[in-house]
Amino acid sequence: MAHKKKEGSHPNDNGTTVSLDPVPEFTIEKGPIRPYLVTEPPAELAKARTVFPLKEKLAIAILALFTASIRLPNLQKPDSVVFDEVHFGKFASYYIKGEFFMDVHPPLAKMLYAGVAALAGFRGNFMFENIGDVFPADVPYVLMRFFSAMLGALTVMLLYLTLRSSGVRPWVAFVSGACFAIENSYVTISRYILLDAPLIFFIAAAVYSFKKYENYKSFSIGSIKSLFVAGVALGMAASAKWVGLFTIAWVGLLCIWRLWFMIGDLSKSTKSIFIIAVSKLVCLLGLPFLLYLLFFYVHFQTLTNDGDGSSFMSSAFRSTLEGNKIPTDVIPTVGLGSLITLRHTGTIGGYLHSHSHNYETGSKQQQITLYPHLDFNNQWIIESNTQAGITFPNFQNITNGMKVKLLHSTTQCRLHSHDYPAPVSESTDWQKEVSCYGYPGFPGDGNDDWIVEIDQKQTEPGIAREQIIALKTKFRLKHAATHCLLFSHDTKLPDWGFEQQEVSCATQAQDYLTLWYVEGDENPILPEDTERVSYERPTFWQKFVESHIKMWNINQGLVSHHVFESLPASWPLLKRGISYWGEHDQHLGIYLLGNAVVWWSVTAFIGIFVVLCLSELIAWQVGKPVLQDKDVINFHIQVIHYLLGFAVHIGPSFLMGRQMFLHHYLPAYYFGILAFGHALDITATYVLRRKKNFAYTLLAVFFALSYYFFKDHSPIIYGTEWTKDLCNKSKWVSSWDYNCGIYLDNYEDYKNLTITKPSAQPSVTSVVPEVEDVQPERPKHQVTGVAPEHDANIDAIFKYPGPKVFKDQFGNIMDPERARKLLEEDAGKVLRVEQNTVKKNKGTAY
């Protein structure tokens, strides 16, 4: 905002810097018809808020050293995986190995961790599988945590500089920064390989740069540089987590705010206002979007190998990855006798699938599911509905309206539906069970008949709308007897269905959930030189759009209950935190909890400020004068700016149906702390301006109380020794649910404690990774083992004496020769075949 020039000092010729008033008067000029506010700041304002005298530089150095002493020590402890390091450490490994994965967050922060690890020589050979897994010696986890901690420490400095840029006096900004340095929640999140520290740093950099921009005259070098840096920081924030988009929205609202006053400023030409608006649009919206695209381009260029996360993506996307097994050179024309795979278009479930296991409900016939991975149990033979099992001498196309049967090639049962409720969605009368029914030699019955209905809108114009063309025709399968449609959705079968996706026959389904297409197609009748087709390679933009659709859908699907989840309404009250790590053998634990002194003070101030503004509006309406002191005006403007940021960042949380956790509050809380810094400033420099010593004492007491809380609860930040008694006494609120039972009765007992630590996980890439919350659900029965060094190990499997039963991932019995072929083709993914219950990462959250 523009201000009236006030007398003050500035750097003189001999280089001595004298402090300027950081809150000059506002300038109101007389116009031909009305008075108007001058929106250009005085030249002295930028100097008053950015050029620091020697004493302040010393204070900044002290603040930096104090912050480093809080944020950087003992990052090597614990020497095992903590909280969501199971995700983001693992993703760093995937980046280093170039294996495609799927995550609900943009790539920048994860790529930065991967870059730090790669520079330290890490080769991605540790997968961060479970909370508590001990790090091998060759995993540079300390350096990765140090990167996070440094960003957290720099965020403290950015908070100080931001408060100075919005008019807070140096000594108040110093106390605010010191309190932020010991805010327990930010200390905790910045000590581990998590996305929160990079995100908060980028948000803080954007806020500081934009506030700095407001202090310069339009079109000055300082304003251009600050606006550009703000745009870069916004792009990096949005590229670390989508929360950064809320920061872009906040900056946009402030730009509209300022533009409104510019339009009323008679000293500014329309042309200059237009140029300012366009420059903000380019720097604060265009530049972040370009950076966002750039980071995704690097993401796709880095993850070039097929990986577990690729099963989320379309086959066209997956076909661009090295090592993929997506069918190529597919026969385009589909006819009777064709051996096909059917892919569902509406979900990430994948392929129509069956295996030799029965439902435990309904008809108890053979299961039909969707399975996201390529497998021979996805293969079906198209038969004539009247001459099932007969091989025709001439090729017959499958055309729109044709009635067919689908024979499962492995088990020789046919796709079937009847009047039984769906296995999981049994309470919905519009879904019927789909099963695989029959046996070798059985000709089938009328409930095996399906009518092909080609979707004319979803299929490209041409012959693909008349007959089924592999990869191109989108069609539905209508059950001939009941007229329901073959359907699938995100509902999963229970353990007896290996948590694969439910398939049913629906009469009232949404159209996109009933669409299918043929991906694999072979037909023995057609000659060898038959024309073949493959997926068209998607463009970067197509991959970008598809990945975002998947990210959004997966994010919306994170709705399962979590023991440490909390609702947004409870966050400002600090009702509970999140358990990050616990080691019963060592009697130590880590728990995310805010600094209650700072936290509740921020919440109380927000409530007080809202009441204050309402009372001032009422007073104004009844004719009472409104305070016009420059400090009071600046206080109101800056606090409204920051609390607008608070509202923009917390507001969307109330609309989300997914799991929510306390750490989701931290971006909004950062804006609350900035607003509270102005509350301390107005109290010390305006309300108590005649009682300076009391003001100093008040700030010192507030810091002392904050530091006491920090030290009292530091064992659950650093994972250090504590006693049961002290732990229980530290619970100011009964709902703080960190486990005091894990601690010993006194500190002497720790000296006599014998710790038997588990051995570090071998630095060998796991063949079948365990399920994590955002990866596709896998069957409960997995094929596991160690990759053999040579083919002799494969021979040993088959030559080992005694009876053997070979099973695939789903528990299906495999032909021994088929099992051997799969092993030899894929370099021995399995050394032995065994059943292994899939573990899930407990206690983790996004």
Q: How would you explain this protein's 3D organization?
A:
By secondary structure, this protein is an alpha+beta fold. Helix content is 39%, strand content 11%. The protein has 3 domains: 28-299 and 590-712, no CATH class; 339-533, Trefoil (Acidic Fibroblast Growth Factor, subunit A) (Trefoil), CATH 2.80.10; 766-846, no CATH class. It has helices at residues 43-50, 54-71, 85-97, 108-119, 141-165, 170-181, 184-189, 196-213, 221-240, 243-263, 270-302, 315-318, 540-556, 596-621, 630-650, 666-687, 692-712, 715-718, 724-729, 747-751, 791-799, 816-825, and strands spanning 28-30, 35-37, 339-344, 351-358, 366-371, 379-384, 403-408, 414-421, 431-437, 450-454, 475-479, 485-492, 501-506, 516-522, 578-583, 588-592. The strands form 4 sheets. A 6-stranded antiparallel sheet has the order 11-10-7-6-3-14, with no helix packed on it. Strands 4, 5, 8, 9, 12 and 13 form a 6-stranded antiparallel sheet that branches.
The N- to C-terminal Cα distance equals: 39 Å
The strand count comes to 16
Mean pLDDT: 86
> Uncertain segments of ≥5 residues (pLDDT<50)?
1-18, 763-794, 796-804, 826-843
Give the helix level as a range of percent: 25-40%
Q: Overall 3D geometry?
A: globular
Q: What is the tally of helical segments?
A: 22
The main β sheet shows up as: 6 strands, antiparallel
Beta fraction:
5-15%
- Multimeric status of the protein: single chain
- Output the radius of gyration: 32 Å
**Strand order within the widest sheet?**
11-10-7-6-3-14
Number of domains: 3
Q: What class, by secondary structure content?
A: alpha+beta
